[in-house]
Amino acid sequence: MTKSWRDFGLRDQIRRAVVSISSNIAEGFDRGSSADFVRFLYIARGSASEVRSQLYLALDLGYLSKDQFEKLYDQVDYVVRQLTLFIQKTKK
To answer: Model pTM?
Structure first.
């Protein structure tokens, strides 16, 4: 959805934050301890929250329609909720 954006800074920042989500999950998993894994899950959740914030900015700048924003926001919000549950279960 960001291919046509001329705002390369925002586009690239969103892309980096999205990649950071899965990268931190993978890195945390491979650390070998639950405490490290949870720490990296928190970082992944932070990256997802960063994407939500950037989506609001993209909407305000007119890069996304309301429908596009809502679809993407709902997807990222789902990831945040899943990560929150995963953190809670891993901490136990």
So the answer is: 0.87
